[in-house]
């Protein structure tokens, strides 16, 4: 399965909720990096009486931009999905601000899930699928 | 200036580079969501906004502007005290060797001068002049005090009379009318002329506390003609002390003591001694006052007794009893007479060759008396004869014409001569020279342009006088007694034998130097040490005595010197200050700020990208280069062609020997110059004139220019 197209997580999840019949399990695998948010979509799934489980996937570069040699100095950041670009000087202050923002974002998603009894698991994209499915998610997400 | 300011035009490519740089280094991310708070708000910022938001570019542009202004070298004119100039004049005369202050007057003066220079404020320009035989600038005007302190430390007193006036004139000439300049003169005041008080720039610093000195102020040795080998020594002694002095006096010839006696002199008393003695060889006479006073240099005086000598003269004549008789009666002449057939030119072993009405094919180099003949290789044109030429005038100053009365000489027929080489007309008629002294580098000759049998000269007293004078002018080593003794500081002029090409001069201290020769004479003017100077040539050794014998120097009584002028109100003068260092400093500061900002963006570490490392490195190099500008580095430039201008000082303070030496130096320098080099000559005294305009000629051809000799206006010359 290949990811493509613009992200509209709320729209996708709400659409699925509307189409789903009966109860069941909904596993949402996403980076939740949607400017319109994710809350409305997840709430729509819960209202449809689905058991929702979340696998939050982020790339290692996103978790720690300093691991990439090219993420220093003056750069033009290009949004992979929208193609939008911005200028940025990546100095120590900028990286610190990014880390703070990332932590707030991750905490926000996890807190949203915890309050609604949504099982939440955070993984990085370089983790092998076997390790995720057979190791870290065994007995948690998929029973 | 416009070219320098156009450097700011580099701002354009800098801005272009900035925008090119903005399009580089794209980094793709999943989403801009997490970066949003850090991102610039506008998707496509306006040009002006981009400028506003990149402090690096702004700093770079400002630094570039500062550098452009610095290169334009702006100046600001302020009214202030201006640069302070201090000239240190050190009296190096003999009296400064006096030991009435410990360790000596000169050492004390030197210490005071050093202290003055060390205490000068930073930025004060200082120059050092030593007053020797000629004033010598031993450290040129400079804000660097090191050379001045070195020059003061290296200065030493010499056995010379004081010529402080010349040193002061030099200092004033070099300072011009700079009213803020100061001339500090360190002296004991032992000089004849009154110390100058009119120039308020002069500060007199006196050394010396007393005068306890006995001096030999004169020593002259003369032949006593009452018998062979009889001499008389005239000695003048003077006591410049305030107390009576008793001491042992000796007169010696070589190592033989002629007279030894105790002498007592009352204060400020002079006494003359006449001491006869006999001596038959060459020798050195020394007079010694044996006492431990404050100045040792004047406790001894020397004189030289010349060796008995003869002048080898060859007379080539068909027969002339006048000439033979006058030569044979000269006690110093060894005469050889040759018939014209036996003479084929040249000198043979003779010191002087006399040709009488004999014209060989050539005579070559040497010393000649030519009577009624002009050999073909002599640079004199024979234009015919002149009947009964009347003597219009004669040169009374030339050595050949000394004591010669020429007014009543009658000549029946003379040669009409036109010299084509340097020389002096000694007697002339309306038709040209009758007696001519020819002086060429390798030949010296006296020309008598008439037949002795057709003139009454041989019957006059003038004839033996002319011949005697001529032989001694032409003959080497023809020194008179007085010539063998000179005062310290005066030039030595020693004639040398024909054919002698090199000579070695040995000073009293034993130091030897190669002597320079011009026109058959050795000239030497560094007679700054009392004692016997020896001149060695392949023909033998000549000796000359150099004595202080200067009462003014020996009188050590401290003189009253003018008080320093009262400190007046500071004179304000317009001062131009260059501002480029300030602009370079601002540019360096801006670039340092920019580099730090850039480095901060790189996380204060070594940048990961090679381009970033290069950019950071270049910033460092640029900063170091700007800081190096403050050290004012200079690159010596090698040029293939030079324009050389010789400034020849012909003022009265420069003696004839020194003038000759400077001219000779210029001549040799021009001979040795590169073919592409050009030279010019400016002669100066109180005013200056171009003697030879800039030319590429391989030899010096100074024109005959007239300048006033009573001053040294080196500024006009420059």
Q: Would you mind describing this structure in some detail?
A:
The complex is a heterodimer of chains A (143) and B (718). Chain A has a domain at 9-65 and 108-136: Rossmann fold. In chain A, 39% of the residues lie in helices and 24% in strands. Chain A has helices at residues 9-19, 39-47, 60-63, 92-115, 129-136, and strands at 24-30, 50-58, 73-79, 85-90, 119-124. Chain B contains 14 helices and 35 strands. Chain B is an alpha/beta fold and 718 residues long. Chain B starts with a helix and ends with a helix. The longest helix of chain B is centred in the C-terminal third of the chain and has 22 residues, at 580-601. Chain B is elongated, with a radius of gyration of 38 Å. Chain B has five domains: 2-74 and 579-598, no CATH class; 85-209 and 558-574, Rossmann fold, CATH 3.40.50; 214-308, Immunoglobulins (Immunoglobulin-like, Sandwich); 311-474, Rossmann fold; 643-717, Rossmann fold, CATH 3.40.50. At the A-B interface, strand 3, strand 4 and helix 4 of A face strand 1 of B. Strand 3 (73-79) of chain A pairs parallel with strand 1 (26-29) of chain B, so a sheet runs across the interface.
């Amino acid at each position: 399965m290949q990811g493509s197209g613009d992200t509209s997580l709320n729209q996708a999840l709400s659409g699925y909720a509307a189409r789903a019949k009966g109860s069941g399990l909904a596993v949402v695998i996403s980076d939740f990096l949607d400017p319109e948010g994710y809350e409305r979509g997840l709430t729509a799934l819960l209202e449809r009486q689905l058991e929702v489980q979340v696998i939050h996937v982020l790339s290692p570069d996103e978790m720690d931009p300093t691991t990439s040699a090219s993420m220093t100095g003056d750069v033009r950041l290009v949004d992979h999905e929208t193609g939008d670009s911005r200028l940025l000087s990546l100095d120590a202050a900028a990286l610190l601000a990014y880390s703070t923002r990332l932590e707030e974002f991750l905490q926000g998603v996890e807190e949203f899930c915890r309050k609604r009894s949504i099982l939440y698991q955070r993984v990085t994209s370089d983790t092998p699928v076997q390790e995720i499915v057979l190791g870290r998610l065994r007995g948690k997400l998929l029973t | 200036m416009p070219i320098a300011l156009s450097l700011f035009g580099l701002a354009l490519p800098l801005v272009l580079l900035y925008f090119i740089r903005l399009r580089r280094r794209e980094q793709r991310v999943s989403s801009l969501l997490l970066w949003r708070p850090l991102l610039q708000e506008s998707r496509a910022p306006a040009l002006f906004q981009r400028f506003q938001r990149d402090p690096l570019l702004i700093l770079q542009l400002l630094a570039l502007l500062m550098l452009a202004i610095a290169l334009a070298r702006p100046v600001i004119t302020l009214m202030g005290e201006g640069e302070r100039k201090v000239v240190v004049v050190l009296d190096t005369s003999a009296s400064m060797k006096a030991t009435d202050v410990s360790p000596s007057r000169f050492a004390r003066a030197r210490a005071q001068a050093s202290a003055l220079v060390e205490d000068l404020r930073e930025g004060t320009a200082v120059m050092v002049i030593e007053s020797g035989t000629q004033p010598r600038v031993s450290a040129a005007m400079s804000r660097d005090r090191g050379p001045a302190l070195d020059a003061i430390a290296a200065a030493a007193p010499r056995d010379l009379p004081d010529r402080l006036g010349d040193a002061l004139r030099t200092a004033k000439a070099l300072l011009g009318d700079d009213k803020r300049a100061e001339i500090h003169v360190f002296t004991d005041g032992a000089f004849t002329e009154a110390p100058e008080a009119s120039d308020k720039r002069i500060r007199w610093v006196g050394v010396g506390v007393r005068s306890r000195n006995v001096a030999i102020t004169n020593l002259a040795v003369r032949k006593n003609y009452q018998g062979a080998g009889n001499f008389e020594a005239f000695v003048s002694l003077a006591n410049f002390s305030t107390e009576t002095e008793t001491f042992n006096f000796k007169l010696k010839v070589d190592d033989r003591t002629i007279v030894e006696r105790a002498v007592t002199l009352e204060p400020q008393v002079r006494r003359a001694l006449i001491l006869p003695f006999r001596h038959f060889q060459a020798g050195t006479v020394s007079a010694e006052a044996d006492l431990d006073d404050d100045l040792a240099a004047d406790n001894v005086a020397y004189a030289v007794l010349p060796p008995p000598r003869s002048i080898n003269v060859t007379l080539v004549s068909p027969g002339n009893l006048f000439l033979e008789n006058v030569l044979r009666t000269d006690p110093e002449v060894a005469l050889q007479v040759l018939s014209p057939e036996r003479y084929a030119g040249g000198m043979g072993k003779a010191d002087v060759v006399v040709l009488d009405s004999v014209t060989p094919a050539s005579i070559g180099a040497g010393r000649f008396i030519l009577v009624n003949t002009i050999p073909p290789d002599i640079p004199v044109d024979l234009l015919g004869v002149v009947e009964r030429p009347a003597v219009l005038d004669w040169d009374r100053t030339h050595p050949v014409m000394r004591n010669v009365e020429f007014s009543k000489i009658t000549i029946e027929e003379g040669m009409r001569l036109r010299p084509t080489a340097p020389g002096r007309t000694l007697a002339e008629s309306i038709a040209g020279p009758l007696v001519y002294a020819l002086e060429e580098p390798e030949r010296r000759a006296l020309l008598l342009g008439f037949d002795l049998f057709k003139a009454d000269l041989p019957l006059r007293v003038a004839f033996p006088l002319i011949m005697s004078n001529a032989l001694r002018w032409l003959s080497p080593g023809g020194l008179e007694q007085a010539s063998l003794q000179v005062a310290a500081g005066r030039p030595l002029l020693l004639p040398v034998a024909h054919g002698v090409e090199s000579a070695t001069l040995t000073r009293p201290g034993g130091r030897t130097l190669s002597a320079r020769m011009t026109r058959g004479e050795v000239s030497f003017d560094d007679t700054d040490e009392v004692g016997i100077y020896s001149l060695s040539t392949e023909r033998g050794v000549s000796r000359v005595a150099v004595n202080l014998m200067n009462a003014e120097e020996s009188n050590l009584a401290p003189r009253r010197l003018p008080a320093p002028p009262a400190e007046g109100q500071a004179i304000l003068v317009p001062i131009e200050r260059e501002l480029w260092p300030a602009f370079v400093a601002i540019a360096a500061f801006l670039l340092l700020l920019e580099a730090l900002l850039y480095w901060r963006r790189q996380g204060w570490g070594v940048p990961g990208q090679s381009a970033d490392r290069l950019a950071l490195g270049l910033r460092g190099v640029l900063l170091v280069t700007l800081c190096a500008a403050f050290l004012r580095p200079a690159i010596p430039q090698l040029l293939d062609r030079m324009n050389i201008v010789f400034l020849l000082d012909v003022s009265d303070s420069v003696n004839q020997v020194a003038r000759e030496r400077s001219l000779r130096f210029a001549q040799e320098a021009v001979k040795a110059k590169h073919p592409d080099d050009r030279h010019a000559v400016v002669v100066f005294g109180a005013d200056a004139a171009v003697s030879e305009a800039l030319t590429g000629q391989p030899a010096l051809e100074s024109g005959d220019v007239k300048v006033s000799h009573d001053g040294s206006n080196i500024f006009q010359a420059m």
